[in-house]
Write a structure and sequence with these properties.
This protein has helices spanning about 45-50, 65-79; strands spanning about 1-5, 20-25, 30, 55-60. By secondary structure, it is an alpha+beta fold. Strand 2 (about 20-25) and strand 3 form a beta hairpin. The structure holds iron/sulfur cluster (SF4). Iron/sulfur cluster (SF4) binds near residues 15, 21, 36 and 38.
Length: about 80
């Protein structure tokens, strides 16, 4: 997942990311692509999408991962 630069819309509280992938950047929140599993392994749907406005969170165009890769990442983060 990826937070676009719609700054005012993204001025929400830090969501409960199960992978601690979201941090407060300057000027916008940033998602660490190395930690984001699109919530695979933890939740049924991306938690950040529930907190931030829907048009504010978009799939990261630079990171295309299969569900299997996302699950493997989750397991490596929480192993
Ligand atoms: Fe965190 Fe899930 Fe959002 Fe990825 S999709 S940044 S794992 S809350």
């Amino acid at each position: 997942m990826f937070i676009n630069d719609n700054r005012t819309a993204c001025d929400a509280s830090k969501p409960a990311c199960p992978n601690e992938a979201i941090s407060v950047g300057d000027p916008i929140y940033v998602i660490d692509a190395l930690r984001c599993t699109e919530c695979v392994g933890a939740r049924d749907e991306p938690q950040c999408k529930l907190v931030f406005p829907a048009d504010c969170i978009v799939p990261n165009p630079d990171v295309q991962e299969s569900p299997e890769e996302l699950m493997a990442k989750y397991e490596s983060l929480h192993g």
